Give the backbone structure.
Amino acid sequence: MNIRVGSRKSALAMKQTEAVINVLKAHFPTDTFEIVGISTKGDKRLDRTLQSFGGKGVFIKELETALLNGEINMAVHSAKDMPVEMTDNLEISAALMRDDRTDVLVCSGDTKTCEIKVIGTGSARREAQARHLFPDAVFKPIRGNIYTRLEKLKHREYDAVIMAKAAINRLDITDIQIMPLGDDFICAAGQGILAVETVRGKMKKYTDAINETTTMTELIAERAFLKFVGGGCNAPCGASAVCDGQNITMSIFYGDTKSEIRFSMCGDNPIKLGKKMAVKALKIAEEN
């Protein structure tokens, strides 16, 4: 059987899709797997911020349309790019290959001597947390793929940009100066996870074989927090869950106009834990 796997056309997306296909091939060596590159609205509209024309969904809508039309059998996404509300009749059927979930500061010069005055990021979550680390810096929006951002950094349009360490790892980029932002810098829900999306109930043999239950549990918990807190690309919030097989420990960040909220909790049910933490975060925000 030939399986058509949809992917964004960026170098990172293609690399990630190839990695998922390699896992599929290991389980199903007699099948063939074909990458179908699809341009998304988010890849084309680099002149505007994501918030101005649809948020996270702009990176997956065309792929979802292809799934529903039967043009592809499955789609591979960076899980952090997926809205918390799923399109009707579609589901995240596998979660796998979680890489380093942290954010890092990529600097234009030596991290020990570089004067950081202008920081590039298009994420409200990243900016809200980084402002406490760099209170004197100016934050400017930045769009484009990893290489485009690094080129802007090279030409000193920014002194530094905030990036996901997983993206740097997957593209094997080594000739850059990186400054860790610390364990308290909470990642986006799903950061570092690859998500496979399918029509509900379809391709189950394939997705069940490659799904990592621990990774899926972490993703469900993080997305549950995001859903119940009412967050998304426009809201400064993040969630990082660690599952040891039975228990889940999750740390969250939630910022509103009055305060910045951080805390951790444990549980054994990912959806209940996410909801409980969202309720607590909203209560604290209301009291403040």
